[in-house]
Amino acid sequence: MNNILILGAGRSASACIRYVLERASEHNWFVIVADADHELAAKRVGNHPNGRGVWLDASKVNDRRDLIGRSDVVISLLPPQLHLEVAGDCILLKKHLITASYVSKDIYKLSDDFRNKELIFMGEMGLDPGIDHMSAMQKIDEIKAKGGKITSFSSNAGGLVALDCLKKNPWRYKFTWNPRNVVKAGQGTAQYLENGKFKYIPYNRLFKEYRLIEIPGYDEPFEVYANRESLLYREAYGLDDIPTLFRGTIRYRGFCDAWNALIQIGLTDGTYPILDSEKISYHELMEAYLSKEGRSGASVKERIAELLGENEFSPVMKKLDWLGLFSKKKIGLENATPALILEDLLLKKWKLEAKDRDVIIMQHEFEYELEGQKRRLYSTLVLEGKDANDTAMANLVGLPLGIFAKQVMTGKITSTGVNIPVKKDIYKPVLEELKNYGVVFHEREEIL
Prior knowledge:
Layout (H helix, E strand, L loop, with lengths): L2 E5 L6 H14 L2 E6 L2 H8 L5 E5 L5 H9 L3 E4 L6 H11 L2 E4 L5 H4 L2 H6 L3 E3 L8 H15 L3 E13 L17 H6 L4 E6 L2 E6 H4 L4 E3 L8 E5 L17 E8 L3 H11 L16 H7 L11 H9 L6 H9 L14 H12 L8 E13 L2 E12 L7 H18 L7 E3 L4 H11 L7 E6 L1
Parallel strand pairs: 1-2, 1-4, 2-3, 4-5, 5-6, 6-15, 7-12
Antiparallel strand pairs: 7-13, 8-9, 10-11, 11-12, 13-14, 14-16
């Protein structure tokens, strides 16, 4: 195999492209990077003799298939909704496919098709999902190998920004990944297991019912809100009989209460347009969400505070004010949904500056029984990026894809069909090589 096709050249693709091109000369590979932004694709490849950046509208079937047909391995960093079509192309054209996105039910239905053609589909080979699966399974397998019985497993991760880069930002948050996904985060119902019982948290309560966790090296605890898909991994992790299983997203203190305020107002709703939204101000939008008359002479800000059960000068209200939600500035987006208006505003306020450094935090917590003792094991990763261009997020999404692609290209992977990285022959070499890039989990254990 000699040819690799990388679909997508966005921020998350940068580390993957760099890694694959670095190995291309050594192995005599040729790498095509395809994106709707031809200049960006060409910039990612640069002058590398073993690569080329090309234009591609991924929705155009014939153009997409032409590029896939000339490759041996396809790495897709396209939006998740396109992966089913790309997977169909790969089956038709007999190509291996690797993605960082969650594997949908429709993709899983293609497992026999991939297996029958001796093809590899590896999904969830990124950060979260990806490194979380691999690092968790490594510890699960180690605990089981020494005879331990796991009774509780919690896995939490978050993409944040170094605190010294956030001194003027009361939210203590900036975008380090897809802004649309941040705005939509938590929509649906979170499901997890606790002491043998199923637990459900609907969206309207999710950011109220957060947990606190401690991370070594930090002076204050972090907030964690529950993910939707915790229960999906019981079988994949070999933990079918575990009584407690939880997966969550990490944020700095103060974030969840303020985000809950946006939900309660209605600003995360993407189901209807705000009529004449291009003509009204953020202040007028806030007033439109006040269905009840406030006390005489009360400002819109005061009435919103009352709606939320907040003091006008509370930390939550200061965060909303800092965003500009009470300003007289025009929204300027035609017939936009509340969620789109919010996303557009946050893109301006939560943009990474050139020297900002992002931080990835991931922590697994296991409780298990071994030789009559109850134990708790923490396994923690903290990795900081260099700046807004060389981010920890891009590295931890892209490097596992590149490393695994190398394993496929060199014939070291034999697991065909649709898979996620939970098998030892998959996760071991990827995690081992990731150590070279600072991806090291530090452990601490205590007897209960």
